[in-house]
Write a structure and sequence with these properties.
alpha+beta, Rossmann fold, four-stranded mixed β-sheet, two-stranded antiparallel sheet
């Protein structure tokens, strides 16, 4: 079967490089909907290197450190994962804001630049070696998928929301990590009505949908059908 190769996939000796896995302890910054006594109890549990009962966590951090830390507690224990990774668009996601008559652009701070940017720069030395931004992107997505796969149960599944420009690359990575036989479906999400981008200077047809790629961890996949119908307003506006 053809193999997708990118800079950094193999080392100088031809050996497959493994994603970095450096687990770091989480630090509780805030807890919600609990009394002061409960909050102190939670902090005491963490201070004693024990984990309290919990239902949900919102974790802020670089996935390079967050995912290996989750493996310590949840390896092989997660039934469903949904991710919405960057689409390799080159955007930095500055935020335009309008307040009454005034408007300004909120530039990302240092942490936001790291967390939300969708740019994949390469050094001059990399360029001389033929390394491209897509090499960096594909390496990033492959390493992410590899660690996420280890979180899933054998009955588990992963949904990956991705755009048309890198769909083929991400799917190739998913095939390698999960196995071609564990591909289950490509869900088409129509995000806009048909429009024309083929005017003067255009380089492609209109892009009107994204995809959600569904893969299972094994052939023991359990399908859970959706329980909520599409909103009527959405259906009428997108599928007249």
């Amino acid at each position: 079967m053809p193999e997708l190769i990118w800079d950094g996939k193999y080392d100088a000796a031809g050996k497959r490089t493994a994603p970095p896995r450096v687990p770091l302890p989480f630090q509780t910054v805030e807890t919600v909907n609990e009394t002061a006594q409960e909050r102190q109890r939670t902090l005491d549990f963490f201070a004693a290197e024990r984990l309290p009962d919990w239902r949900n966590r919102l974790i802020w951090g670089d996935k390079k450190y967050v995912l290996p830390s989750l493996l310590v507690e949840f390896s092989g224990a997660v039934d469903l994962i949904y991710i919405d990774p960057p689409f390799a668009t080159g955007a930095d996601f500055s935020l335009p804001i309008k307040l009454e008559a005034d408007s300004f652009t909120k530039e990302p701070n240092v942490i936001e630049q790291k967390a939300y940017r969708d740019t994949w720069g390469v050094s001059q030395d990399d360029r001389r070696r033929g390394v491209t931004p897509l090499d960096r992107y594909v390496r990033w997505i492959y390493e992410t998928l590899t660690v996420l796969r280890d979180l899933l149960t054998e009955q588990g599944s992963m949904y990956v929301h991705i755009g048309p420009n890198v769909n083929h690359l991400v799917r190739s990575c998913l095939d390698e990590v999960f196995g071609v036989a564990n591909y289950r479906a490509e869900i088409i999400w129509k995000r806009t009505s048909a429009h024309s981008d083929v005017g003067q200077g255009a380089r492609h047809l209109g892009r009107v949908h994204d995809s959600i790629l569904l893969y299972s961890a094994s052939d023991r996949f359990v399908w859970h059908p959706p329980h909520v119908e599409h909103d009527d307003k959405y259906v009428k506006s997108h599928y007249p």
